[in-house]
Amino acid sequence: MMSRRRGKVMETDKQPLFSHLSELRSRLLWSVVVMTAASILAYFYVEELYGFLVRPLANAMGPDDSQRLIYTDLTEAFFTYVKVSFFAGCFATFPFIALQIWRFMSPGLFDSEKKTLLPFLIGAPILFFCGGATVYFLVLPLAFKFFLSFQSNADQTVLPIMLEAKVGEYLDLIMVLIFAFGLCFQMPIIMGILARAGVITEHTLSSKRRYAVVIIFALSAFLTPPDIISQICLAVPLVGLYEISILLVKYMNNKNKNKNLSDDPA
Asked: The whole model's pTM is what?
């Protein structure tokens, strides 16, 4: 009799687990399908996308017709276009993927947890795009002008020094920088979640500010090209985001304290 009961309990425990795994598989499959379809669609506009990504370098080079991007491997240009299409597909489908994550997580959350998590889920793509825009409109133009300043003609260095950048390496650099800045700009989201979980407080962040600034500048030096302009262009916004994170954590902690006081029957 007891073995039958245990068998029923184990069976009822397995059913929700299998249903959750089935739902997770379904949402992952749909995310992959939509991302693949968006990447294929983006390939039909890959020349326009390539032109958009290469525009900062073209503006820094100026109207000189001798400036160009090259490829030395027979398949390099093709696979570069494929990577650009996949890059665009990931960007285009990010809201859909975030929606799938939310729909998978929301049934297991309380209403208060949903209200807490939803602003972070909405703010994450906004901050990511802000990071990408910082790279495209601020960092790349300044960095390219710095690196192109090392070009010279024959009167200066006997043999001219001219840039012959490979198209694959250039676009790899662009995409890595955009993703790196986008992820670094998630700092307020991460800090807010940690504060909601009770891991950190505003006092902890304030007392560790000096160490955080050193880590931010070290991280900026690692992620950006080796010039001081790019490092400052990443470090300064991150320091500002760190200060915003302190205010966000303080607001959330005060809100939690007020809620606890209101819930206290005494």
From this structure: 0.78
